[in-house]
Design brief:
Elements: E1 7-11, H1 15-18, H2 38-46, H3 51-54, H4 58-61, E2 68-73, H5 78-82, E3 86-88, E4 91-93, H6 95-105, H7 113-120, H8 126-139, E5 147-149, E6 161-167, H9 182-195, E7 200-204, H10 237-246, E8 254-256, H11 262-276, E9 300-306, E10 309-314
Parallel strand pairs: 1-2, 2-6, 5-6, 6-7, 7-8
Antiparallel strand pairs: 3-4, 9-10
Helix pairs in contact: 6-7, 9-10
Length: 333
Amino acid sequence: MGNPPFIDVHVHPDIKTFLTADEERNRLTCWDSVNLTRLIKLIDKILLGRILESQSNLSQLNNSSGTIAMVGLCALEKAMIKGDLVKIFGFPINLLTISKILKMRERNDIMNYELLKSISSWRYYYHTQFKKEEHHLDKSKDLSPGYQLLGKISDYDQTKLNIVFTMEGGHNLFNNTFGCKYKQQVISNLRNLRRGSNRYLFMSLAHLARNRLATHAYGMKLLHDRRFKPVGYGIRKLGREVIKIALSKPNRILIDIKHLSLESRKQYYNILRTEYGHENIPIIASHAGVTGVSYNNMPVVKYSRCWRWIKVQYFKPEGIPGTHTKFNPWSVN
């Protein structure tokens, strides 16, 4: 096997085209470019921090033969759709209201209103959306110029774009979070994922909103919704069971610590030491920053209690010498 010229450890080439329609037959393929209109570009720049513009597609990844891209499949969390960007005269502006406004004003082929409305409903299951996104990306595999989906390293094709599937967020395993059967559903969905035709290299237990596997690290700057705020003290019993099943052989799925709270990360390290110390299992940190300081000596300016949460303000430590940069000591790093 030749050395791949480039490996992208965390990329989402499916999201932008997935949002273009509420049914797969009407969607653009993952090779297509989505052209933003002037109005959407303005909204993206002012309110969304250029999130829509920055999302890639397979064609952009395919610039160099042999590239390996690790795709983080991730169902959009309901808080991401209904979380408020701003309030104008008391009226909340979020992705759902923006897509509705765009639908009324012009042809909206970037954020389909019907799809976002469906996903944000309590009746819609995360795992259902996750499997639809997997199917959406899978459909583009044999479209010209095509990509190679890796199930093992010997599948690597240095003449093509190579894709590795990963999963971002344990919420993708949930059908719902109420009733007595959701735990069995999570376990069943994970086992089916391990037995499926597509191999997953790693998965993260958490993402940007709360779930019932582990406490996440607060990392949302743009949207305001209570569900983005962490609750709990680390990895729950169900989260530990998910870890055990994911790390079992064959078809082991490694755990990505990105988005886990500091306490959850420390607990996971302890699980590896006490239960898997003889196996030397790698720790994945797919798209994480660093604080520049030890968690034993965090540079806290002040903190205040706000109902169930504690709001912390930090000093920013000096960055790499000679670069005039600073580290960000948020615990998401």
